[in-house]
Design a protein that fits this description.
The protein has 164 residues and is mainly α. The chain has a domain of 92 residues. The protein has five helices and no strands. The longest helix is centred in the first third of the chain and has 35 residues. The chain is flat, with a radius of gyration of 24 Å. Belongs to the PAM17 family. It is found in: Mitochondrion inner membrane.
């Protein structure tokens, strides 16, 4: 019977914020990088399938010209690739960075709690003045996080304090 007596170094150390934000950025890059080939694969796969079907231009499909319908289906295949790409990128990132995945998940929860606590209430926004970066998606470093906090405070003061 083999028991695990020692914990690995990655389980014992806490991920600091700079490392977390760097790993978060790399995960986003993996997701973006996988979107491009999955879109291309969806487009070429849809074009290969729908291009090989026998088509009678005189028989509409659901009341639509077959060439337009097959073109829309090919574009839909590309859209599915666009949706699936970030999921594949995230899965590959988790495989490559498996040692840090749990630590990043824990920091993700803490980060999003901080974002939710410090962001401006969405009911204060107007169509001409939306809340800046509501979900903190552009935060990639501690410097950008501090900037995000300042922007949230500036927006809150602008909306809540009367103009003089």
């Amino acid at each position: 019977m083999f028991s695990r007596c020692q914990t690995t170094l990655s389980e014992t150390k806490a991920l600091n914020w700079a490392e977390y934000l760097a790993l978060r950025g790399s995960r986003h890059k993996w997701q973006t990088a996988m979107t491009i080939p999955s879109c291309a694969l969806g487009l070429f796969g849809g074009a290969a399938y729908f291009g090989s079907l026998d088509t009678d231009p005189m028989k509409p499909i659901w009341g639509i010209d077959p060439f337009i319908f097959y073109g829309a289906c090919t574009a839909a295949c590309m859209g599915v690739g666009y949706i699936v790409g970030p999921t594949l990128g995230s899965a590959l990132w988790r495989i490559v960075y498996r040692r840090n995945a749990r630590l990043v998940d824990a920091r993700d929860r803490e980060f999003y709690q901080r974002i939710a606590k410090n962001r401006v209430d969405a009911s204060l926004q107007s169509p001409t003045s939306p809340v800046p970066d509501y979900y903190g998606e552009r935060v990639g470093s501690l410097r950008q996080y501090r900037r995000w906090l300042r922007d949230q405070g500036k927006y809150k003061r602008k909306v809540l304090l009367p103009e003089e």
